[in-house]
Predict the structure.
Amino acid sequence: MTVFNALVISICVGILTVLNFTASGGFKTAIMTGVVTGLVLGHPEVGLQVGATCQLMSMGFFPYGGAVTPNYPMGAIFGTVIAIMSGDYNQGIVIGSVIALLGSWFTIAKGFINVRLIHAEDKALENGNYKAIDFYHILGIVITALVTMSIPVFFGLMIIDRYEIVMNFINNYAWIKSGLAAVSNLLAAVGFALLLSYMDIKDYWPFMLIGYALFAFFGASTMAIAIVAISVGYIYVFKLKKEEKGGAK
């Protein structure tokens, strides 16, 4: 990994983090960071593949009550790099999942720092210094981008070449590679299970069976199933709205 590539990736993911707070959201996601990393390294398709899997695993997590969740956007970055370096998507997913867990420590560190800023904002509010409140708020966003993404990503990418030692060891032992493939498939299954646990399957299970049948028995692609799902969902919602309007009359 060159210094230039590491710097570009760390700056880009830092900008995505800032945009996630200042814009409408949805910028600091595993898909976005994975694609950006893949674009910088010339393999956007690998970034999309790894990022989408990490995004799927992250869908069952939410920081309720300030709970710290795995940093899957960071995991997607390193997972994409490892997948490109090793040529093995499964290795990228496994390493990305581990990095996501380690990345949660930077989220905790950011929290400690931003607590000081919150107290500073309270004092500024007591003194009626609204410009200071704006400054501390913006500073908190910048610190979040630096501490949780840009700084650890840059230094991590600078030493990621040492992964070749582990990669060579894995290539020499086929059973490890098979284990990594099994674990990566299991992680995706866990992501699906977590997602389904948050969905109201009791009322919408027929739609789930339709999607399963299209994939398992008819070999439909993901895009085809998505198009069918959007169409059926629109018809279902439109019909409900029509019935509600009719009932209201």
Notes: The chain is about 85% helix and 0% strand. The two ends are 66 Å apart (CA to CA). The longest helix spans residues 89-126. Residues 3-199 form one domain.
